[in-house]
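Newbie here. two chains, one complex. Structure please?
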Amino acid sequence: MKEQIKIRAKNLNFYYTDFLALSEVSLDFFPHQATALIGPSGCGKSTFLRCINRMNDLIPGVRVEGSLCLDGQDIYGPKVDVVEIRRRVGMVFQKPNPFPKTIFENVAYGLRVNGGRDREALSRRVEESLRLSALWDEVKDRLDQSALGLSGGQQQRLCIARALAVRPEVLLMDEPASALDPIATQKIEELIHELKKRFTIIIVTHSMQQAARVSDRTAFFYMGRLIEVGNTETIFTYPRHKQTEDYITGRFG
Amino acid sequence: MSSHQTHLNEEIEKLKHQVLNMAAMTERAVEKATRGFVERDEGLAEEVILGDNRINELEVDIDRFCLRLLALEGPVAGDLRFIVGCMRISVDLERIADEAVNIAERSMILSSRPPLPFHDDIRAMSDKALVMLRHAVRSFSSGDPDKAREVCCMDNLVDELNQKNIRKVIEYMVTETPAIRRSVHIINIIRRYERIADLSTNVAETVVFVVSGTNIKHQRYFDDRVPEADTPSRRIEDVGAEG
């Protein structure tokens, strides 16, 4: 029996002005699963990821067709509160992007923007988020110091904590470990395993090994189309499409 | 999108070459052991025993090569199945070669004693086992799962011959008590060919796995389970794009 669907894309087309960047993409995401989006540069995977919390809205001339639903509600519906969508669907980027503020203020930022003023409640949420992102033990004694003094790996986990502080339901990760060393990468991957117990995770990665290690399902995109999706073990052992096999085995002209 | 050769491609070709080389040596060992027994030629039997070291070395080489590819190249999909398949096949080939040595050792004992009337029976059985081995190796070489499946179907014939021949030798032993020791060697030789057929079936099953991704091992014992299990059609449905 299929699990409940958290996000459902149905015949999704996405245009950058006249350029069709995503074509007829139909793809489901399930709660408590990590799904990896893979494919060569320009295949549309990051565009698709950014559709999920309407980050593409900020680009002039973009247009969306088809439907993209979060818990059955169309993300692109006329009465949708985009700020609320972005609260429910958090995002972590390729390069860590902490604000030039203290560690505490970085994590508390989203809460303050949403009106949080109670210092004690903020502190509790900051601690909860830093614990969830496996950073608490490393920073608990220097919460008032600048986030810019943290290592790259710590900064990325701080950004994850910042995303988690507003209690999202979905976490989008756009190559979250591509700028990190192997140890920091491993920590992020371990974190993904933990986080997927509570959230729906969608990760774009260029590392096949990373996709294989962290995700339950994998979707392969090519030239704006979804070529194949399935459980990760199947995709990496018996892919159905030759294009998928060529891509994941590196035979890609 | 077009395919292109990769470094791993070249390494996999080398691996295939090594496995085929080992398979050719194993085939020759079984052929020689059979001829040594049928023609009562101690020289051929000795060649089999001495040649086994090289086959053992090849198994170790292939194992090391596969381990290196797994560690350094991060193979997936068809590449991964091929490398895992080669590791399995080399183990089966090494065991087949050991069976040939066992036949050769018993042939050397028997060749100095009066012959028993089972050469034709054993020849018929060894021919079938050898055909299975050859076809299994050819199916690996050409990546032909249909040919591999044919090998699996042939195993029943050899099993029947095994039972028939052993019964025949036991009946002979009852009346020809002075030949009991030699008859026991004959029974053992019959069992060796049955094992060669089994191990050739293993090779063929591995070829099916490598080429199509379907694991058909032990399927005869789980026939009831097959429709519910990880059959190819079910897997394809699971992987299909949603809509």
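Moderator note: The longest helix of chain B spans residues 77-111. Chain B touches chain A at residues 1-6, 8-9, 74-81, 213, 235-236, 238-243 (CB under 8 Å). Thread marked as resolved.
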